[in-house]
Design brief:
The chain is of the alpha+beta class. It is built from 9 helices and 15 strands.
Length: 331
């Protein structure tokens, strides 16, 4: 007899974006379940006027699956349907550093932190890996002030970010330093310099408990030269939207064409690249083709075709995912 769960969604502050959230949450949830409970099916529902998703599974979801569901970007609560009652099963995973960490630093053009967590999840759980979630090595090669790094750190991952914007990196670094000091969290901080193409790539590294978070001033196409081959389990980033100047579209696609081969080499076998972009200026088919030319296997169909959503008048955001499927070794 099938088992039914109700997956209540976190209410989004932006009312217009909230209308898209159920569709995005369903796609993310299906991808997570495909990685750990592939026979489970997801459908949208409402419960007492609240947006929700229904999960039907042939058997109770095992604890490893529940652990992954706790990391879903929009989970409010997971409940087992018991007749007309909802029995609590799981809530959101506890943040390793602080639930408020990704949201405090405000700046123009910041990508919503819940969407950023969704992007990381889509990349990680699309990857045909069986690495424990708490050993994940994450890279954002265009990290800006580091929102994605703060989310990855909260999820328990080793977080590395690179960017060519020195001021943005410095702002993210200073913010994290103040956050640690304000909350009296034990940590260590180290400055160093890596050498790439004969030039210095300044690095700021925080270590805390059994984790690390690093900011590196580096061109996105040089991550392989800087960090080495087979380093990261997932690479995720939000591409420049190019709202102000239409030429930014070709720049975003050109940047990917130049950087993707290095990103693929920096991935472990079976690792994934996930990028979000403005579909009004950069075409999804072009990005998927660029992934294929770089040696990645782009994913399409099913939940991967459901991420396009309205952000504002000039921005319709979408997601593309590619897998480094060369010589995959499952452990």
């Amino acid at each position: 007899m099938p088992i039914h769960y109700t997956f209540l969604l976190w209410p989004h502050a932006n009312v217009r974006y909230r209308a898209e959230a159920q569709k995005l949450a369903q796609a993310e949830l299906q991808i997570i379940l495909n990685s750990c409970a592939p026979e489970a099916a997801v459908t949208p529902v409402e419960h007492l006027g609240m947006p929700a998703l229904s999960i039907e599974a042939p058997a109770p979801l095992p604890e490893p699956a529940l652990e992954r569901l706790r990391r879903h970007s929009l989970l409010f609560g997971l409940y087992l349907n018991d007749g007309d009652k909802l029995v609590p099963v799981a809530g959101r995973a506890a943040a390793r550093l602080g639930e408020d960490l990704p949201g405090i630093l405000k700046y123009k053009g910041k990508t919503n932190e819940l969407f950023t967590q969704m992007l990381i999840n889509v990349g990680l759980y699309s990857a045909p890996l069986r690495t424990p979630d708490d050993t994940v090595r994450f890279l954002d090669p265009m990290c800006g002030r580091g929102t994605s790094l703060f989310i990855a750190a909260n999820l328990g991952y080793e977080a590395t970010g690179s960017d060519i914007d020195r001021a943005a990196l410095k702002e993210g670094e200073q913010f994290l330093k103040r956050y640690f000091e304000y909350h009296r969290m034990k940590h260590a901080f180290q400055r160093s310099s890596l050498t790439v193409n004969g030039k210095s790539a300044p690095c700021a590294r925080f270590t805390f408990e059994d984790q690390s978070l690093s900011f590196v001033e580096l061109d996105a196409a040089n991550v392989r030269k800087c960090f080495g081959a087979g380093r990261f389990h997932v690479i995720a980033c939000d591409l420049p939207y190019g709202v102000q100047h239409s030429t930014k579209a070709s720049n975003a696609e050109g940047l990917l064409a130049r950087a993707l081969p290095a990103w693929r080499e920096a991935l472990v076998p079976g690792g994934a690249v996930a990028v979000s972009f403005n579909a009004q200026t950069a075409k999804r088919d072009n990005i998927l083709q660029a992934m294929q030319r770089a040696g990645l296997s782009p994913l399409s169909g099913g939940p991967y075709d459901e991420f396009s959503h309205w952000v504002e008048q000039a921005v319709t955001r979408d997601v593309a995912v590619g897998i480094n499927d060369a010589k995959i070794r499952r452990s």
